[in-house]
Amino acid sequence: MASWNSVGLEVTYEVFGWLTFISWGISAYPQIILNFHRKSVVGLNFDYEILNMIKHWSYLIYNASLYFSPLIQKQYFDQYGYEQMIPVAANDVAFSTHSVVMNLVVLSQIAIYERGNQKFSKYAISIVAVVCLIVAICFFIALPSQSWLWLISIFNSIQVCLTLIKYFPQAFMNFLRKSTDGFSIGGVLLDFSGGVFNYAQMAVQSIDQGSWVNFHGNMGKVLISLVTIFYDSILMLQHYVLYPDKKWLPKNNREIKQPLINEGLIPVDQQIKDSVNSSSHQPATPEV
What we know:
mainly alpha, 11 helices, transmembrane, membrane, Cystinosin homolog, LC_transporter, PQ-loop_rpt
């Protein structure tokens, strides 16, 4: 396995890696805290969370397997060359593990807090079922030949695909409601920062090695950075430009409630009383 050529770049690599972990790790907390204070998950898209769960589990399996398994590392070097470095760092494993735990916390909040009429869509549930089926089929294909690197690459591809689609339900929900109320923008800002740091970490390693093989060897890490930056930019545009400070109200609360008696008009009973009094004071018409 190759070693670092520059101590400065190695330190920079580690710094970017742990900045990624901090940004992406902390990005889960604003939403959890917001849900806790509101005792509600209205405004949080459930499909986003269930797809996020499968995505993080897939990424954890890929990162932990490549980082800890000597057998899979050997298969990686056989494919990409022994002069290359493993494209997974300790911060990648730490991030994946932390993300799985945080996602379980959010799902528990969905189960216990006020959620209005929101529920998991049949499309999201179908996607989860298809992913589980694909994983089962790929496992039995890889088993006879012990092609574990290929199998975890499938998990990496799954997390990329789910990253591509997981942001869409939330962005579309914001569009329909014309509001980002209930969705924490703090998590989006941290998520965006994590994407930038993650990509920068990959670039530093490539610069040191004078090779871009690590981008090919861990295309999932590259794509997750680019997709995250793209979608977070859309969510920030919605929050700060398209729908700033717009509170969402349920449909049954949108009608403006009028008072039963308009304060600018004389009540009916008062009008009748005045009419009677006026009639009693009118002079009688003389007989002809």
